[in-house]
Design goal:
Order of helices and strands: EEEEEEEHE
Number of domains: 1
Radius of gyration: 13 Å
Oligomer: single chain
Largest sheet: 6 strands, antiparallel, barrel
Shape: globular
CATH topology: Thrombin, subunit H
CATH superfamily: predicted glycosyltransferase like domains
């Protein structure tokens, strides 16, 4: 089940142009993807780099926009994660499960 994660420390960038990055809030984080609350969403099908910072830990992986809610954000499915990135996500999700399913991620 997805967990609520709030973070102003999430960054998305287009895979084809990392210079086009923006900060977003992350929600419904799961091992398979997340929702990014972003003002200028990328179109459906866009490949993006997702980077999430939590305390002293950074997660980074490739994803693809699978749905867009105009003026709200995008749903992203992770398409390529290194084993170390999967371990980071599993750790965060385990912490959230123990804490009741909701947490605020701060830097």
């Amino acid at each position: 089940m997805p967990h609520g994660i709030n973070s102003s420390q999430t960054r998305k960038s287009l895979k084809s142009d990392p210079a086009l990055s923006s900060k977003a809030k992350t929600g419904d984080l799961s091992i398979g993807g997340c929702f990014l609350d972003v003002l200028n969403p990328s179109p459906e099908g866009t490949e993006i780099q997702v980077t999430i910072f939590r305390e002293n830990t950074k997660f980074s992986g490739l994803g693809r926009v699978v749905f867009v809610f105009p003026n709200l954000g995008v749903g992203v499915v992770f398409t390529s994660l290194l084993p170390t990135e999967v371990t980071i996500l599993e750790g965060w999700l385990a912490e959230l499960k123990l804490g009741g399913g909701r947490a605020v991620i701060t830097s």
